[in-house]
Amino acid sequence: MSPHPHPPRLDQKVALVTGSSSGIGRAIAIAYASHETKLVVCADVRPDAHGTASTPEDKETTHELINKRYGEGKAVFVRCDVSEADSWQTAVAEAVDRGGRLDVLVNNAGVGEHNYPRLHLMDEAIWDKTMAVNAKGVFLGCKSALAQFMKQEPHPSGDRGWIVNIASVFGINGFSGGHGPYCASKAACLNLSKSIALDYGPDKIHCNAICPGFTQSAMTEATFKDEAANAGRLAVTPWGRWGRPEEIAAAAVFLASEDSSFITGIGLPIDGGYLAM
Question: Which UniProt keywords apply (predicted)?
Answer without folding.
Answer: NADP
